[in-house]
Amino acid sequence: MSFSIKVSRRLMDQLPLGLLLLLVLVVGAVEPSFWSLHSFSNILVQSSTTVILATGMAFVLIAAGIDLSVGSVMYLGAALGGRFLISAGYSPGSVAVAVVIMLAVGVLFGVCNAILVTRLRVLAFIVTLGTLYIGRGLGHLVTETRALNLPNEFLALGATSLAGIPMPVVIAAVVAGTAHFVLRRTTFGRQVHAVGYDSEAARLAGVPVQRRITGVFLLCSTCAAIGGVVSLSQLGTVSPNLGFEREFTAIAAAVLGGVSLFGGRGKILPGVVVGALFLQTIQSALVVLNVDPYNYPIVSAGILFIAVFLDALKRRRRAGKGNR
């Protein structure tokens, strides 16, 4: 591989980080308050849920799948956990049980998605689109489409710090760090990449393809449940819009961070984390610059198009180099 090709590939891999730094510089130049420590701290805290969701989504995308149900998993888990707290009374023990309920919802959805994809051979897009609507509908049924206010004991999770670092950031860092290690340093991670790159070749090489697909769906839904706990600990209210369209945010963050929509390629650190920070920085910049909220969906759509374009460009360049 020539030096110019190596440099070109390295620049392409670091493009998300470059865009993030450029965004921070430009917005800070327009509005200096954006460069404050308080502003950066808020971005880290507010992006923690996206980091967790995108981390789980990365596993599925690398395995050449997709999971559209993560937002509904967040909502249904929060609805059941919130309803339990209201019926059982508020105590430290009941808060712990509510968290377990939310995590159990994630595991259950992961198992259901995996069974339908691996056993019944239904496309992951169709399966998770169905569970998206099922989860959202069940959540509305539990909450009766009304907001559920949670006790201060639950909010303590989002308000506490560890060594001066907000707990949501700590949880996101642990999830991302563990996922990075699993993907880069374990047999499971290498096999997930192999399945996404060429599932048939992986099967012939002895990789348990169906079990690896089951594993990534379980991880994705579990991360969605963890993200729901973190998000709810910051909001304190189970609203009907909780988790709405968060699956698209997770996909955009993962793809912006270098995870391929076609499978077989992606890194959690720094990739997915940078993608999540980039999205949250844009949201914060829109608020700081007093942009009309009606324009937010247009910006979000533009970001999604950029993510897909970058992924397609990387894939084309790699395919071109492989033909030389």
As a percent range, the share of strand residues is under 5%
Q: Can you list the strand order of the major beta sheet?
A: 1-4
Q: Count of helices?
A: 14
Poorly predicted ranges: none
Q: Kindly, what is the distance between the CA atoms of the first and last residues, rounded to a whole number of angstroms?
A: 10 Å
Helical percentage: over 70%
**CATH architectural name:** Orthogonal Bundle
Count of all domains: 1
Note the quaternary state here: single chain
Radius of gyration: 20 Å
Characterize the main sheet: 2 strands, antiparallel
Mean pLDDT across the residues is: 87
Number of strands: 4
What spatial form do the alpha-carbon principal axes imply? globular
CATH class equals Mainly Alpha
| Named CATH topology | ABC transporter involved in vitamin B12 uptake, BtuC
Report the order of strands and helices: HHHHHHEHEEHHHHEHHH
The secondary structure category is mainly alpha
